[in-house]
Amino acid sequence: MNSPPNLTDPLVLFMPSGKRGRFPKGTPILDAARELGVYVESVCGGRATCGRCQIEVQEGQFAKHKIVSSLDNISVMGGRERRYVDKRGLADGRRLSCSATIEGDLVVDVPQDTVINAQVVRKSPIERTIERNPAVQLCYVEVDEPDMHKPLGDLDRLKAVLERDWGWEDLLVSQHIIPTVQATLRKGNWGVTAAIHQDLDSSRPTIIALWPGLHNEAYGIACDIGSTTIAMHLVSLLSGRIAASSGTSNPQIRFGEDLMSRVSYVMMNPDGRVAMTKAVRGAVNALVEKVCREGGVDQDNVLDAVFVGNPIMHHLFLGIDPTELGQAPFALAVSGAVHSWGSELGLAINFGARVYVLPCIAGHVGADAAGAVLSEQPHHQERMMLMVDVGTNAEIVLGNSQRVVAASSPTGPAFEGAEITSGQRAAPGAIERVRIDKDTLEPRFTIIGSELWSDDEGFEADAARLGVTGVCGSAIIEVVAEMYLAGIMSEDGVIDGALAARNPRIVADGRTWSYVLHQGTQKILITQTDVRAVQLAKAALYAGIRLLMEKLGIDHVDTIRFAGAFGSFIDPKYAMVLGLIPDCELAEVKAVGNAAGTGALMALLNRDYRREIEEVVRRIEKIETALEPRFQAHFIHAMALPNKVDPFPKLAAQVALPPRAQSSPGGEPGQAAPRRRSREERTARRART
Amino acid sequence: MNSPPNLTDPLVLFMPSGKRGRFPKGTPILDAARELGVYVESVCGGRATCGRCQIEVQEGQFAKHKIVSSLDNISVMGGRERRYVDKRGLADGRRLSCSATIEGDLVVDVPQDTVINAQVVRKSPIERTIERNPAVQLCYVEVDEPDMHKPLGDLDRLKAVLERDWGWEDLLVSQHIIPTVQATLRKGNWGVTAAIHQDLDSSRPTIIALWPGLHNEAYGIACDIGSTTIAMHLVSLLSGRIAASSGTSNPQIRFGEDLMSRVSYVMMNPDGRVAMTKAVRGAVNALVEKVCREGGVDQDNVLDAVFVGNPIMHHLFLGIDPTELGQAPFALAVSGAVHSWGSELGLAINFGARVYVLPCIAGHVGADAAGAVLSEQPHHQERMMLMVDVGTNAEIVLGNSQRVVAASSPTGPAFEGAEITSGQRAAPGAIERVRIDKDTLEPRFTIIGSELWSDDEGFEADAARLGVTGVCGSAIIEVVAEMYLAGIMSEDGVIDGALAARNPRIVADGRTWSYVLHQGTQKILITQTDVRAVQLAKAALYAGIRLLMEKLGIDHVDTIRFAGAFGSFIDPKYAMVLGLIPDCELAEVKAVGNAAGTGALMALLNRDYRREIEEVVRRIEKIETALEPRFQAHFIHAMALPNKVDPFPKLAAQVALPPRAQSSPGGEPGQAAPRRRSREERTARRART
Q1: Res. A662 pLDDT band, cuts 50 70 90
Q2: CB atoms within 10 A of CB B58
Q3: Which stretches of chain B score pLDDT less than 50?
Q4: Cβ contact (<8 Å) for B318 and A179?
Q5: In what ranges is there compositional bias, type Basic and acidic residues (chains A, B) (predicted)?
Q6: Is residue B127 assigned to a domain?
Q7: pTM to 2 decimal places
Q8: Pair (B404, B458) in one structural domain
Q9: Which of A370, A392, A274 shows the shortest CA–CA distance to A322?
Q10: What is the reported pLDDT for A128?
Q11: Given A23, A153, A266, B619, which is the most exposed site by the fewest CB atoms within 10 A?
């Protein structure tokens, strides 16, 4: 096969990879695929029993490739393949590539089970196909029986046949398998299936599991451990099919809502770290059980697992004390990718299962951000991409194929509804969308759990059923932006008390003014303090973004990705009116949901993605916003809506923005300046100490 | 340094390796040694703090090497080295090679702490120097402090400096270290010592332990798990010094004296395997504690461990059910070397410590035999070496640099004193040496615990104190051989009843005769049945040896090694008179004691020996005596003393052997033949089912 191809040999083209080559008649299609580096699964090693190596012949003229592909050019189904079909069946047009041979020119389709990026947290699924090259492979072999004349051990003969039939050299063996080898071989009547793990090409492949007979199931989990939510995909490593996706709340919430209060808990309680590690691993295990139940998969068939998470969750999950992350210089215990074992982490999956944890980018930009980078691939784009994950700490990644920079910014909890008078988490009854009439200054809104706007007929009934209980994060952004667009407040965020004369919803609150959004059993109002909290949060995020843009010497971005749950609910238009993100075509602002989880899934299904993200993370330049003298200036400019100095021409082309003030108004801003600074400092302190 | 050496540069010769090279003036001697591949230890990495890199300059004219070596040609002691000497002292003539530089031609001696092959079981120590190249190395480094601008994790920066200062690339990290890295780095004020394990050159080196500051102690254990005795050396991996050696009885004896009864125990008892694994690991741990206490070594400083043992002990120690070893085809679960972790096997040593288990040769020729081969090195000799380890199963290895063959032979327990009327284990009061006067047929003997012969003055007192309780293995061989030499029995092993007239010690016992060796509180006699048991045992061993000689096409061996405890007590002359071993110069028959333990020690101190024994074991041809049709013929000839057909010219030159019988005497042998066969079959059955 390594001799130069004979030009009279049939030409075979594999789709969708497009790889092609000439092979002598009679060559099994699987062998041709292997030789060209086309990934076609096979567990049984060409015995026509596992059915994993299915392909489809595309018939017709492929002028571009100068191929006329025909079913006549593939061998007639023979005995072994026929026996498989009689026993298990085969979809129309499918053939087993281990048995079907090349008899003429062919275009061969390798069917890809489409990976659905099923969003766990109320998100529309995105379709995406991930080319598979998993770190775990199943290999069925038939081992020689013991022979007194050649007294190689049972395990040694197993290794020898795995080398002979599958090319695995220098195999290591997971310790727990050694005592079981003899019984497994005899139970399988010398036919066994070994699960081989090899991640780095430079690492030695390892037998991590062994079953008697043909074992045709191998699954993996991809998990994003977020501060509030843990999300998990269960996927077949043999087909790429997602068997189940689910999420659960992180039980560590009981140790503190935000990350820094959890670090404090560890610092204050001698057994705090142990308790929190136990809690998160317990939740992960409960989720493993859930997705396996939903997917009808035996937990023992889960052989590989990939995890992402923010640095503190990453550390706690791995059993590392996160205290150092709570204070400058925010030193990670480990930033590189971590290779571990499910048994080391107490995971309720196969005892030999491996674990891969993506690298962290910096002390506040974790493996979850790395997962999002892997998913959105800024490093493969010519266009400049901004990725933002808004949370208590916002993670910001900016770049393209030339250069990528990253930072975190202490936005504080305002966007999550904390420190807002009527703020609450997203839950039924929470106000979700807000519009304010520019003329009447009257609001209308929707609540979670109802399709209706508050001025629609029938809304009263829904409101009575669900209650109108507060404003969630997305509504906070919308109401503040709409108050600005309606002229209820100035670009500096000052609610205009003079408007109280026009609409009684503008009410005095000491020496400042508030806006009454709803008056039901509960009065829901937006106070001057609420507006300030939103300004501080958005200014911190924007200042971080602006700093990164400055590092790259750019004045605009081409495309924006909102990662994370929060980004999926906010309207890009309002985020931009608020000046949360820089000016950009609105159509180029996209919510990508749990991109971190998608990145984990990619790394699970294809180990090449692990090398890719490790290399990208090494290249990403980390900016520590707290150390940048320019941060403060950007922050102050970003207190204005949308910004004191930065233009928003693309936004202005689509949204009627109020005219900019010509100069700083007196009084309030002058008074606000020191107050702002101290608030910012408090935010930073809260986030980092 | 990689440029061609300048012929005007000083010439440096390292002893004892004899490696030499030219180096520019000012080159530290340690660097020169490294470049030439001379192993000089260093933990601190050239900071003149660990004191491990000591060398000595040899002064004088070395005409053969054309070097005039002088203390003037080494740099004057400088500041760092001076500070070390002031603090820790340095033996006269010693220098630190990391600090002392080359200033002219030198002959440098790298002092080797002589490894004493301290025999555990009452054996005279053999001196031997083992060149060191251990699998574990200590490396002190000073890690960069965390930097917000370059947020590499603490562990990642540790790995980076281990690569920069010590050349370790692609380091893996033992899982248990990850959560401790940050505290260790801070405790050591960023100076830490890492223990790096690398065994195979193709495997990735791994950080297995980490200490704050300079940690200057690393030990290993070499352990031979025998059926009756477990023996252990504790040795410094940094100097090769043996800190302690000790032994303990194998507690598995309570599950059955011989190996096969232990296999039966496992087969009959559901938890038998678990109980026996627990027992042997518990005994190993007790021995670890003992040698560490004796050597004044913290168990946590034991970082590597090498084990040998017969196949059944090997399996039970590793937690493998040995049932398959109890029946044809005697399949080992694993025959290749096993790499494991102390924590996996529950060993009371450093949690990250590694374990290496030598390969097994065959189902009845274990890792202990491999250790003995490594120790005695038949594969490096031109002369033909026979190695024998006598036990219930005798292991036989025969060969030279051309070819090595191995087999086991079911000798049964006779040599251990079992199935012998007055047999007992070696213990005070047991008869140890025996001589019989050819004229009077009167015996004299010694007992364990006394220096005196039974006809010496004062023996009565010793006998009264110790008792005369039975005959141990070595005495059984001597008394049977002496009875033959004195003419009390024929070459066919028949005790001559006619001699009862000459000496009343020959007494009737039914239709056969016995010889009364001692008449005290206990009557100690050698019966015809005892003689038959010895004949059967020695015939089985000799037949195995003869079979291997036949395989190699040789009619004599050049040198013989008795390994194991038994071999150390028997007199080669009597072993040869008995025909236990083939004819050979008596001076060439040597007891080597616990050669298996010595082999383990070699593999512990130098990982090259691991590769050597793995390669040799692959090459060794295994002969299954039970399957060889010629075994039976050799066995029958070997029933005679010393042998029915094989000549013993070298023995005859030194010992007056009785004249050979011209033909088989009638009666007894004819009757004995079927009885012999059935006995042999029973022995084989006992050993293998």
Answers
A1: low
A2: 17
A3: 1, 114-126, 664-689
A4: yes
A5: 678-689
A6: no
A7: 0.87
A8: no
A9: A274
A10: 66
A11: B619
* Torsion sign (Cα): A447, A452, A454, A458: negative
What's the alpha-carbon Rg for chain A, to the nearest Å? 29
ipTM: 0.86
User: Which DSSP string do the residues of A356-392 spell out, in sequence order?
Assistant: EEPPP-BTTB-HHHHHHHHHH-GGG-SS-EEEEE-SS
Q: Distances from the Cα of B428 to the Cαs of B390, B433, B455, B465, B564, in angstroms?
A: 22, 13, 18, 10, 20
Of residues B148, B182, B626, nearest to A333 (C-beta): B182
Residue B120 inside a domain? The answer is: no
pLDDT in the model for residue B113: 64
Domain boundary among B91, B109, B127: B109
Q: Tell me how far apart the alpha carbons of residues B284 and B273 are, in angstroms, rounded to a whole number.
A: 17
Please report the DSSP string for A457-478 in residue order.
TTHHHHHHHH---EE-HHHHHH
Q: How far apart are CA B614 and CA B603, in angstroms?
A: 11
Between chains, do A361 and B151 touch, taking CB under 8 Å as contact? yes
Output the six-digit token pair for A330. Answer: 């925010």
Number of domains composing chain A: 5
User: B154 and A333 in contact by Cβ < 8 A?
Assistant: yes
What residues of chain A lie within 8 A of the CB of B318, using their CB?
Answer: 178-179
First to last CA, chain A: 64
pLDDT of A132 strictly over 90? no
Q: What is the 3-state secondary structure (H, E, C) of B23-55?
A: CCCCCEHHHHHHHHCCCCCCCCCCCCCCCCCEE
The answer to whether the Cβ–Cβ distance between A146 and B331 falls below 8 Å is yes
In A339-358, the residues whose Cβ lies within 8 Å of chain B are 339-341, 344
Task: Using the predicted structure, report yes or no on whether residue A497 has a pLDDT greater than 70.
Answer: yes
pLDDT for position A45: 87
Of A404, A371, A366, residue with least CA distance to A385? A404
- Name the nearest CA neighbour of B515 among B487, B538, B556, B542: B487
CA-closest candidate to residue B318, choices A243, A438, A173: A173
How many beta-carbon contacts under 8 Å exist across A and B? Answer: 156
Q: Is the Cβ pair A178, B333 closer than 8 Å?
A: yes
Six-digit token string for A543: 């200042």
A interface mutation test: which of B145, B156, B395 has the most A CBs within 10 A? B156
Show which of B184, B212, B240 is a domain's final residue: B212
Same domain flag for B548 and B682: yes
C-alpha span between A598 and A115 (Å, rounded): 10
- The residues, ordered by sequence, that sit 6+ positions from B435 with a Cβ below 8 Å of its Cβ are B443, B444, B445, B453, B478, B482
- The residues in A 89-118 lying below 8 A from B, measured between CB atoms, are none
Please say if the pLDDT value at position A238 is more than 80. yes
CATH of the domain at A100: 3.10.20.30
Burial class (CB in 10 A: 0-12, 13-18, 19+), A420: buried
Report chain B residues whose CB lies below 8 A from the CB of A178. 318-320, 333-334, 338
Confidence (pLDDT) at B656: 92
Sheet holding A11-15, edge to edge: A20-22, A11-15, A106-109, A54-58, A94-96
Nearest to A155 by CA among A137, A138, A136, A180: A180
Do B318 and A178 lie within an 8 Å CB cutoff?
Answer: yes
Place of tokens 């691991």: B610
Tell me: do A179 and A266 sit in the same domain: no
Q: At A652, list the tokens.
A: 């202005």
B566 min Cα distance to partner chain A (Å): 27
